[in-house]
Amino acid sequence: MEFNDADDDIIPAYDYAATFTPEQAARLRQQLESVRIHKQIMEEVEYDHLFDSGERYRGKCAAKTNWIVEGLLPEGFLAILGATSKAGKTCFATALAMAVSTGQPFLGKNVQQGGVLWCAFEESEAERLHVLNQWPEIPKSFYIGHELPPIDSEEGLASLRIWVRMANAKLIVVDPLYGATAAESLADGRVARRALAGLKEICRQQNCAAIVLHHITKDLSVGLVRERFADSNQILATASMDMLMDSADLPEGGRLLTIACRGRGDFANRTLYVKSSGVTNYELVDKPGPLPTKADRIDERIFTALANSPAGFTAAEMASNLELNLYSVRNRVTRLAQEGRIRSSGKRQNAKIYTLTP
Fold first, then answer.
1. How do strand 142-145 and strand 255-263 relate by DSSP bridges?
2. 289 domain-assigned
3. What is the extent of the structural domain holding 34?
């Protein structure tokens, strides 16, 4: 009787196998075959969960789609919210987080109520409280932490897992990405991916979502484009969705936020226009027409000042009266004079006096 090498882990070598009768050898071969089949079945059962057929996968995942903010942020998603410093991203994220902790609609959309973990890696206690005090009360389910371990460390991820369960958290906010990581730079692709991979896995396993705030470059000349994230592309590749936010003052007061979204899913590939009249008030609006530029707003104030003073003003006087930067006013009056919209009608202490063109 002959034995294969594959049998060595089942029975010892049988140098005396020749002493078996044909019937004994047949029974032994059947037993070995049964053992092999059993091992194969056990291995298949052990690893059966690793893959799903396309049909089963679609049905299973579709049934699990639950929204934190309906049509905007689903469970299991990690979103990067990028904007320049002081553009309003922290206030916007706070309003969203408040909606989750209270279950109140956000941007007119239904919200799944749950705990919030706000990871403040940059704000001081006073700065965080200043924003939160804009609401009448802070919900008990809104948790804030300051001295936290990095999100790209085992300790940081372990503590987040524990707190997600303790707080029944549905939303994690990390502010900002650079302050939340132990890495000195996120320019390296592997480092950038590792910085977010663990947090994203927590979102998947715990059925919650995360928003990571990130500073972007101030190069306004290139427009509202993803290149302004100015780090490794792996930051955007690892995130489920990136949201690039810009803000502009509205003539009637308040701000218009333009949020360009890119990501996985139709809902994640669009541009949102949000009007804000304060830290606690945000509403979706239709795409607006062209907004006045900063130069347009300065020009309008110059025209109003000159219309109310027929004798005119120097550039320095206008800058002082309007509380504007002198350099900006000088640039604008020079341009307006060149265009013939205002004129120089004399001098006062060697400075040109400007009046409206008749």
1. unpaired
2. no
3. 5-46
